[in-house]
Task: structure prediction
Amino acid sequence: ERVSETAPAYALAVCRIVVFTLLALDVWRMGDPAVLAALPRDWYVAHGLFRWLPDTLQAALFEPAFLRGLRWSAVGLAAAAAAGVRPYPLFAASFCAVYLLLRALAAGFGGFIGHGWLAMTLCSWVLAAFPAADALSLGRTRPPARRSELYTAPIVAMGALLCTSYFLLGVRRFARGGLEIFTGDALPTYIGLASLKDGAGGGYEYGLVVLTSSLAAIVMKAGYFAVTTMEVLAPLCLFSNAFRWPWLAVMIPFHV
Result:
């Protein structure tokens, strides 16, 4: 009986570890943010509330030492949140703020956060607002007695955020690109150009094969259509256990 009572707390704790670990790796993967300081300032376009900041404050944000401090702070805060270090809400909320600042500064130079990482970012905010460190955390041996809804509600909310992000992406792709994006040359061209960027996507030869082989292009287009269809149908995962497995079978290979 005790196991069934604490299972939601452990499930939420696993979500905490996965989300904050992945976001810490994302910050590390971003590389040295001080390179932003070397870019021409007239390239920078502030977004959202950042456009209301005074020019002197915006200039201070691009000091190399400050940018590097942001990166290391984000990695440390994410590690502390993943480990459930107390006070957990302080570490988790602080990471959310620092990560948002890092991403906003990069976005000002034309960068963007993909739908997957955007959903992960929103999930981190959900985790910061709930007792996600009641289990599998440093300094705590067992979860305290709480209502199970405090653990299940954020799990449902994170699932809804992930499904909604995929749904909106798929709908936008169909609305903006129509069927032409799946039948024309846009996808093979994109893959060919992407493969030239440090051999991304499986190596330089990968893009060459897609560009020169009609069969490979057809397979890629059909797979892209299947994935986009699954993205539009993603909300069904919230209601159908039977649909989740084929959905994962399509989406996981595509992202890997």
Summary: The two ends are 39 Å apart (CA to CA). The mean pLDDT is 87. The CA atoms of residues 99 and 215 lie 42 Å apart.
